[in-house]
Design a protein that fits this description.
α7 runs antiparallel to α8. The relative contact order is 0.07. The protein folds into three domains: about 45 residues; about 60 residues, no CATH class; about 45 residues. It has a two-stranded antiparallel sheet with strand order 1-2. By secondary structure, the protein is mainly alpha-helical. It is flat and about 80 Å long. The longest helix is centred in the C-terminal third of the chain and has 20 residues. Helices cover about 45% and strands about 10% of the residues.
């Protein structure tokens, strides 16, 4: 791509725009200074992920009932929940157990009440769990058919599993 210079000076253009006014194409190439002068720039604040997480934890942990009296501490590393709220970093793997109650509340707020993962089938399908159980039974029967060298039954089961899988997950892998 061709590098442009600012339309108003010799600096490199960092702002580029194309407008169509009355059927005519108007291009602007401006440096940061002249773009700001025309009010065309804005600063995007790129925050590190740990800072975003810290702000999120603080925002969703304002309720004192979450931390509990005397603040909970990890027996392994000594990190308190208040320190976790400040840093958004666990001290060790045991912290997840120590702060389980507080993290459940935090996750529930974040995920509209859900604190457990139930697979890739949306819960609003109603029969997703039944489909998964049916698929598991059919796959077991398929394995048994192959082991017994009943290839006709195995082919039939393979096709049925493919149909059900396609209906359940929108075309994902059947087997």
């Amino acid at each position: 791509m061709e590098k442009h210079k600012c339309d108003k000076c010799d600096r490199p253009a960092t702002y580029h725009s194309v407008e169509i006014v009355n059927g005519k194409k108007i291009e602007k190439h401006l440096c940061e200074y002249h773009a700001a002068e025309e009010g065309l720039t804005f600063k995007v604040a790129h925050k590190p992920i740990n800072e975003l997480l810290t702000n999120f934890v603080k925002m969703h942990s304002q309720d004192q009932s979450v931390a509990g009296p005397g603040d909970v501490a990890c027996e392994q590393c000594g990190l308190t929940y208040a320190e976790f709220q400040e840093r958004s970093l666990m001290g060790c793997p045991s912290c997840y157990q120590a702060f389980a109650r507080q993290l459940d509340v935090l996750l529930a707020r974040t995920h509209e009440g859900a604190t457990e993962h139930h697979g890739k089938i949306p819960s609003n399908t109603g029969s997703g769990e039944q489909h998964q159980q049916q698929l598991m039974r059919m796959r077991k029967r398929l394995d048994e058919a192959v082991e017994a060298e009943d290839y006709e039954l195995a082919a039939h089961l393979r096709d049925e599993i493919g149909k059900i899988s396609t209906a359940v997950d929108g075309g994902g892998a059947a087997i």
